[in-house]
Amino acid sequence: MALGSLSRRAIVGLGRNGGGGGLGLGLGFVRGLQTFTLPDLRYDYGALEPAISGEIMQLHHQKHHQTYVTNYNKALEQLDQALSKGDASTIAKLQSAIKFNGGGHINHSIFWNNLAPVQRGGGEPPKNSLGWAIDQQFGSLESLIQKINAEGAALQGSGWVWLALDKELKRISVETTANQDPLVTKGSTLVPLLGIDVWEHAYYLQNVVMMQYKNVKPDYLKNIWKVVNWKYASEVYEKESP
């Protein structure tokens, strides 16, 4: 896949899934080059407790997501310079950095919108057309959650588990991606409705007294449903469903 194609598709994917106010990409320009900034959360770091600790949320957002944004901007600047020089070797070398860090920014921007405090609807089951589609394809919301949890727990290494809308097949599906690969790398017609981060940094703190889930993914996956923002997923589904 061409580097420019990947970057454009990733940015388009973010924009089209902005339902409910958008993802908050933090787009800006430096010397004419498009740059990105860390998006603000729509809730306090501690607002998802006890499902996800405030300390984990703060580190996840301020440290990990910020690192992806910083490295994404750096790689894009290097790409711009390489393109202006016609440096094909450097352009090729930058592809993996842009995919990894751009994907990290895309995935986390979706993830923050997929969560909400209980007081603001977190954990409330999906209704309307998305709820109907889930019942039709998976039998029940409980069956879907079991499938997503099983896929996420079985994922080797680091990655993401998704509830996706396939606009071409007109159906929803459960998908996984490795590392920070955005969902678009699995298919250009796939739209992310819900993405769950199963990297250790999403639930595990090293070198501190408090280790919320002691590096046990199944416990994390079980509890995160208490703060899943199904309203956001439903808005995206309504907007993107054929």
Give the tags.
single chain; 242 residues; alpha+beta; minor pseudopilin epsh fold; three-stranded antiparallel sheet; two-stranded antiparallel sheet; disordered N terminus
- The SSE string, one letter per element, is HEEHHHHEEEHH
Number of strands: 5
Instruction: Write the CATH homologous superfamily.
Output: Iron/manganese superoxide dismutase, C-terminal domain
The CATH architecture classification is: 3-Layer(bab) Sandwich
| CATH classification class | Alpha Beta
- Distance from N terminus to C terminus (CA atoms, Å) equals 27 Å
- Could you describe the largest sheet, including whether it forms a barrel? 3 strands, antiparallel
- Low-pLDDT runs of 5+ residues are 1-22, 27-31, 206-211
List the total number of helices. Answer: 7
- Determine the structural class based on helices, strands and strand pairing: alpha+beta
Strand content: 5-15%
Task: Give helix % range.
Answer: 40-55%
**Shape descriptor:** globular
* CATH level 3 topology: minor pseudopilin epsh fold
Q: What's the overall average pLDDT, rounded?
A: 85
Which strand order does the major sheet show? 4-3-5
The value of Rg in angstroms is: 18 Å
Number of domains: 1
Write a structural description.
This is Superoxide dismutase. Residues 35-116 form the Manganese/iron superoxide dismutase N-terminal domain. It is an enzyme of class 1 (oxidoreductase). Keywords: Manganese, Metal-binding, Mitochondrion, Oxidoreductase. The protein is α+β, with helices and mostly antiparallel strands and 242 residues long. The chain has one domain (50-241): minor pseudopilin epsh fold (3-Layer(bab) Sandwich). The protein is built from seven helices and five strands; from the N terminus they run αββααααβββαα. The longest helix has 32 residues, at 54-85. The model is unreliable at 1-22, 27-31 and 206-211 (pLDDT under 50).
